[in-house]
Amino acid sequence: MRKRGQAGGGGGGGAHDNTGAMRWLLTYADLITLLMVFFVVLYSMSQLDQQKFITLSNALRASLFGEQSANAVIRTTAKPSLVPENLPEQETLAELGKELREDVERAGLADKVTITLDNRGLVVSFSAEAAFFQLGRADLQPAFKDLLLRLAPSLNKVQNPIEVDGYTDDLQINTAEFPTNWELSARRATNVVRFLSEVAGVDPHRLSAQAFGEFHPTYSNATDTGRARNRRVDLVVLRKDARDTGQALVILGPSEAPPPAPKAEPQAEPAPSE
Hints:
Layout: H1 2-21, H2 24-65, E1 74-76, H3 87-106, E2 113-117, E3 121-127, H4 142-155, E4 162-166, H5 181-198, E5 207-211, H6 224-230, E6 232-238
Parallel strand pairs: 1-2, 4-5
Antiparallel strand pairs: 2-3, 3-6, 4-6
Helix pairs in contact: 3-4
């Protein structure tokens, strides 16, 4: 019995030695646990940063484009994929849109003007109602002139080309001055261009005018409200790449560009007669 007890004691000592040899498993388990906690914390931080980024993005979008407000004057189009990936110019046009929005709001005409940012550039649309044009007329109303004078300083902060587009509703016109809606929409656009260049101080080299008549409505002409909104003038601050100044491909005409006009040589002054 005693020998068996001694053998048992020896076995106990052997078990103690085996336990000491396996202590590295405890350290290994602790390390794995710490690594798991570390990656869980990293994952949690990444999720938190993403939420902050989304919140910041929404705040910036609301600040720049007013998308969170139903009465916003400036808003983005429904197809953001059409907007080029030109971030510096995009930010410049968005900042210009904010300034123009403030000018419109100060004039008290926010319900008659919309400002959008699309693939062409920054579009300021003036509904041709009594505040801007009389029905069937192309003369600028005093409120419209005052608004254009307010917008001109902001427009002069950039050098982008400006295109003015004239539109009408589908009501036909036949007068000595305006035989069709083509003439009416063209006169409205050119009157805005002339006022901007001759009175408001916008560089005429940046300006151009287009006429679309009744053929590009944005609202249904079945209602008076829709017709009123289709009688409009759009002022488009074009993106800088909208007008390509590169060499044109000649389809018909001289294959070579004409030589530049020679510079006038200064004439020598005649020698004084003795």
